[in-house]
Amino acid sequence: MKRRMLMAVGVVALLVAGGSLGLKALVHGPQGEPQGPLVEVAIPPGADFHEVVDILDARGLVRKPGLFRLYARIKGADTQVRAGPYAFPAPASWRRLLTDLTEGRVLTQTMTIPEGFTLKQMAPRIATITGLPEDSVLDNLTAPGLEDVWNVPGPGLEGYLFPDSYYLAQGVPLGDVLAAMVGRYRDFWTPERVSAMEGLGMTEAEVVTLASIIQAEARLTEEMPTIASVYHNRLAQNHLLQADPTVLYALGGPRARLLYAAMDSVAGSPYNTYTHVGLPPGPIGAPGAAALEAALSPAETDLFYFVAHPDGSHIFSRTLTEHNRAVAESRRLWDRLRREQAQGQGDDPR
């Protein structure tokens, strides 16, 4: 009852101070919002509403700040403001200010994580959006035991930060970024997909690990189910996967050419699928939805081999004899491409 009385008194005070027509203009703005450039303002965490209004007033964003405080209190919005960066026309209507501030309509930046990115490749982009040093971000991403913190299969977070575009406030805490990315990963696992995984007799970690290899191998999305079928067939027969991307991961990242000497240098790594049967211990990157779907629903084939052509497509084979012919043809195509590139550089007038 007392609160209602105070609100009633407040409404009367507002009407007396501004007049009904003037109050309407303050709340809704004079015939819409001003069309000039937006003014950016940052509301710090923990700021009380008096401080918030002072910040807005200093930037010329609020008319009649004293009455605005009273209006916000009557509306019950003075305790609902969310911290963060905002942008408003100057001056803004009271309704615009309170709506944006209480709903957290902060300024956002786009952070895009491509499919197949490793934690090492993600770190610079996450550092940019959080404002943290890149090495600090990478240390946090690769800290031991994070699979338990974020309830993912592990090991660590590799493969479980979903590749996508995220719209985040500049300076967002690292924990919020990880929560968004892990949440997006969790969204993939519908009951139907969990059922498909169980039908394959695989664990979540195995599916994501296989999908990460498919993601790294495929250049054409439509080939992913066929690539998946090759690996499923090899796993079923306890055959080496012989996936180049796993060796590159063991070596620390991409290389222009994968030489035998380099492969031998990581022969003991459990990520080397030329020397270790079965899947590696964990994902080698972050697979997207298409690669995960392919791992869960591979094409039904008896294929056992594939080799890449320069255009990104693959030739698939059933037998080693067929595969050797395909490899020879692929090498001819690659050699021709290199000759053409070399000739083109020689013709460059620069």
Blueprint (SSEs and pairs):
Elements: H1 2-18, H2 20-28, E1 39-43, H3 49-58, H4 65-75, E2 84-88, H5 94-103, E3 109-112, H6 119-130, H7 134-141, H8 146-149, E4 165-168, H9 174-188, H10 191-200, H11 204-217, H12 224-236, H13 244-251, H14 260-265, H15 289-296, E5 305-308, E6 314-317, H16 320-346
Antiparallel strand pairs: 1-2, 3-4, 5-6
**Main beta sheet strand tally, sense and closure:** 2 strands, antiparallel
Estimate what percentage of residues fall within beta strands. 5-15%
Work out the helicity level: 40-55%
Total strand segments:
6
Quaternary structure annotation: single chain
**What pattern of helices and strands is seen along the backbone?**
HHEHHEHEHHHEHHHHHHHEEH
Radius of gyration: 29 Å
Tell me the number of structural domains. Answer: 3
Could you list the spans in which at least 5 consecutive residues all have pLDDT below 50? 1-12, 14-19
Mean pLDDT across all amino acids: 88
Shape: elongated
Strand order of the largest sheet: 1-2
* Annotation field: number of helices: 16
Structural classification: mainly alpha
N-to-C CA distance: 84 Å
Explain what the structure shows.
With 350 residues, this protein is mainly α. The protein folds into three domains: 7-103, Dna Ligase, domain 1 (2-Layer Sandwich); 109-188, no CATH class; 203-303, no CATH class. It has 16 helices and six strands. The chain has helices at 2-18, 20-28, 49-58, 65-75, 94-103, 119-130, 134-141, 146-149, 174-188, 191-200, 204-217, 224-236, 244-251, 260-265, 289-296, 320-346; strands at residues 39-43, 84-88, 109-112, 165-168, 305-308, 314-317. Strands 1-2 form a two-stranded antiparallel sheet. A two-stranded antiparallel ribbon has the order 3-4. β5 and β6 (314-317) form a beta hairpin. The longest helix has 27 residues, at 320-346. It is elongated. The chain starts with a helix and ends with a helix. 29% of the residues are buried. Residues 1-12 and 14-19 have low confidence and may be disordered.
